[in-house]
Fold this sequence. Notes:
The protein is of the alpha/beta class. Helices cover about 40% and strands about 25% of the residues. Helix 2 (about 15-25) packs parallel to helix 6, helix 4 (about 35-40) crosses helix 5 and helix 8 (about 160-170) crosses helix 12 (about 245-255).
Amino acid sequence: MATESRTHEQSSRWNGRSGQVWVQSQGLLDQVMKPLEELLVQPVIAGSGLRILDVGCGAGATTFAAARRVGAPGSCVGVDISEPMIDAARERAADAGLPVSFLLADAQTYDFEPARFDLIMSRFGVMFFPDPVAAFTNLRAAARPGAALRLLVWRGPQDNPFMTTAERAAAPLLPDLPARVPDAPGQFGFADDQRVHGILTESGWSDIAIRPADVECAMPEDALIHYFTHFGPVGLALPEVDESTRARVIEVVRAAFEPFVRGDQVRYTAACWVIDAHAA
Ligand SMILES: C[S@@+](CC[C@H](N)C(=O)[O-])C[C@H]1O[C@@H](n2cnc3c(N)ncnc32)[C@H](O)[C@@H]1O
């Protein structure tokens, strides 16, 4: 697929249903992804006064987390391509009293002020670029020489069975679910660490370290059906199906999640790469 059409696809996705359900479910997502937020912001030394860019910031949970640590004269800018997400982030920022601002823009192409940031970070916001080398070259230009990069991305679907349980269980009932294409923009687009190393090297980043992290996450059991009926390929497909198919999918998929249920909690491991690098 051409880069232009992939850009349009991602923009439509995050300005459409995906963006809206992320905003509606922000409280749940913030809670579920809290351990990943802590892992992401580790390099933000308290009171360091860094200037930080949070890429694909969504509704801003990680931007706020970094801003709470950074101290004067530091600041955090969140950038995202999704208008509903940026609107939600700005609304939350209004009363937060934190040094944050939010920018509605495509991080792959936006003309950032050169050498502006000391740290560029992202939790699951960098796997969607149609042209990752162009995107990370653009971000590199926004980083001051020696600035740090800290990314959290998903490892592969085989390491993240929780994330693919719904689509595997629902496949016989929803035969048109899109296939996961390795290396294509999407949730698992940065699963191949060698490829990611190559992208970052080509984009002018050095001291690249990519290490696996298995992070324990939990959500209330009574949020599970909401979760799989709104997120992922099944969540995207369900609004298009009739009521009886929907009911059957919910029954089959809920049963498939049973191995992850522990009493009133659902527990799973988020298998990620933690990526660190510096602007060369
Ligand atoms: C999986 S969500 C993660 C949101 C947030 N980082 C979090 O952890 O809550 C991915 C985010 O990346 C954003 N995104 C995708 N492509 C982008 C691009 N080219 N420029 C900026 N943001 C982008 C989406 O709009 C979405 O908010």
